[in-house]
Write a structure and sequence with these properties.
single chain; 163 residues; mainly alpha; two-stranded antiparallel ribbon; 7 helices; 2 strands; elongated
């Protein structure tokens, strides 16, 4: 059984989505949007016919995440519409593929603000993207550690999807 399949077949021990409504800093995140939905990663593994390739894609995504976020920040600071659109589409699409749904939603929100034509609202909303990216990274790394250990009973309640 592959690591991805084992995650999705654990039933009530570990939810298919890693989420939490409040972060340690007190910052509230988008409700009902998982930080990391492992079902999406399983879909990618199925499409690639390889759980290992999906894991490699996730690893590459995580390696590139800080640079992608900084491209968005730079584009906003430079008031560069085209650069911002490309950076948001790139991060949003890749986030969707790995199941980083909160970060995908954040990109969509910023894209919608950009479409409205003013950078002032984007500048005010921009601080949410770095913490969202950090949550994805933390959730993916925590999940990866569980996969390697093949022990999912220790999943903290704060990271489990509320049903």
């Amino acid at each position: 059984m592959s690591a991805l399949t084992s995650i999705n077949n654990t039933g009530s021990q570990f939810s298919a989505a890693v989420s939490g409504e409040f972060m340690a800093s007190g910052e509230q995140r988008v409700p009902d949007v998982p930080i990391l939905d492992l079902n999406r990663l399983q879909v990618l593994a199925d499409e690639l016919a390889s759980p290992e390739e999906a894991q490699r894609f996730l690893s590459a995504y995580l390696r590139m995440l800080p640079e992608r976020v900084e491209r968005i920040v730079d584009a906003v600071m430079e008031h560069d519409d085209e650069k911002l659109t490309v950076a948001l589409l790139s991060l949003g699409t890749a986030s969707n593929m790995v199941g980083a749904l909160e970060l995908e939603a954040t990109c969509l929100d910023l894209k919608n603000l950009a479409a409205a034509g003013s950078f002032n609202p984007i500048v005010l909303e921009l601080p949410v993207i770095r913490p969202a990216a950090a949550r994805v990274r933390a959730a993916a790394l925590w999940t990866g550690r569980c996969v390697r250990q093949e022990s999912l009973e220790s999943a903290p309640d704060s990271l489990l999807e509320r049903t």
